[in-house]
Amino acid sequence: MDNELEVVTKAKELCRYVVQATDKSPRRFRFTFVSRMQNQALDIVEYLFLANEVFVGAGARPEAHDRRLDLQHRAMTTAKLLAYVALLAREQACITPKQYEMIAELTTSCRKMTGAWVTSDRKRARVPR
Length: 129
Known about the structure:
Blueprint: H1 6-22, H2 30-53, H3 62-91, H4 97-126
Helix pairs in contact: 1-2, 1-4, 2-3, 3-4
């Protein structure tokens, strides 16, 4: 989408990559690392979509800001957890070192971009309109 948040686009890229990287993983890891990583990647996208739907403009209720911040933090925490599960998956030869590096890079990007979004929201909330 043309006017989609850059962080959402990056999270979608992460999700696509995790699904593709785990597609050929050994069967014995299907219900441990593979499903966990795929679900976490999907959760990140979901949290970011939900956060973006929360109106925090002029006249928004304080609860809305809290809800959005909670969803943003959930996305960042889930990205951190995904990176850790990917590390374990690499150590157990579920994914390759190169696949792990890419997942780690993409999760780091998602976390940093979401953090910048949080900072931007905080700055806008302090500016009188």
